Amino acid sequence: MLETPSYRSGFAGLIGRPNAGKSTLLNTLVGRKVAIISDKPQTTRNKILGVYTDEQAQIIFLDTPGIHKPRHRLGEYMVQVAQQTLKEVDVVVYVVDAAVEPGAGEEYILNSLKGISTPVILVLNKIDLISEEQLLRVQQFFQSRFEPAGMVALSALQGTNVEQLPPLIIQHLPPGPQYYPPEQITDQPARLIIAELIREKILLLTEEEVPHAVAVVVEDMLERPGGILYVPATIYVERDSQKGILIGKGGRMLKEIGILARQEIEALLGNKIYLDLRVRVKKDWRRQEGALRQLGYEVGRRRPV
Ligand SMILES: Nc1nc2c(ncn2[C@@H]2O[C@H](COP(=O)(O)OP(=O)(O)OP(=O)(O)O)[C@@H](O)[C@H]2O)c(=O)[nH]1
After folding, report:
1. Among 152, 243, 294, 302, which has the minimal tally of Cβ within 10 Å of its Cβ?
2. Is residue 302 part of a domain?
3. Is there a domain that residue 2 lies in?
């Protein structure tokens, strides 16, 4: 993990109408894996779309559900989630299709931005399709509605000016560590899958009351020298007796769970891993809202650390 005093890292909320070119932009910025990642169903509120890393900073792009599809009937919840996300991120990246005249969809988004003090970077996309006059017109339209903290006209598809975007975002990020190894585009789906695999092994090896009382949280995925991925994971149970069963005599049960899970995870990731399993008791976690939230069973912002 790179951690220098001048390094910056933080969250960018990606917004824009459907078809504005958000995925294309992320693909150009971050790499081809992003599209695959965004296909995976995820339950987290703030889905990580991709992670951009360079020498100066790391930008974690978050999805903003509820803002992308203004035509859909939105529950109050979705609107709240969207607003909340916009407030919580360090910077908002608003992607616009400059090849279409701004209409009701953009007005909806502009409205959502009202009353939010987060800096907004305006991306006028698809400049390969339009004349300079049209670009100027679109630019004026947006500038008459709000004050962007930065603006760039680019073509996500052709890559024109795309390199100008990260510096605009980075200047709004706080100092912080590199949360993810540079080659890792996102680890959310991987973490969830690994947690499920561990849980599956527990179900296989234990019986009765234990399986239902178990929650598994993969705390991190860190690259260690030699290409080994260090994966600390916590198994939560409700009672001391369950903890005893899971650990087993002389730690045998936990070891067995670890071996079985590790084999499958290595096959899945194609990487050597060091699985560091711990068992913790969280009394009656299933009944406690706070505990549930902590375990990721409810909406709530979780920094990826
Ligand atoms: N000509 C041109 N086409 C682009 C550009 N960027 C994106 N597109 C095209 O616009 C369409 C929509 O792009 P996406 O990246 O899927 O848009 P999106 O905002 O992610 O759309 P949703 O997933 O519906 O929210 C695709 O056909 C892209 O190829 C660009 O810079 N120039």
Report:
1. 302
2. no
3. no
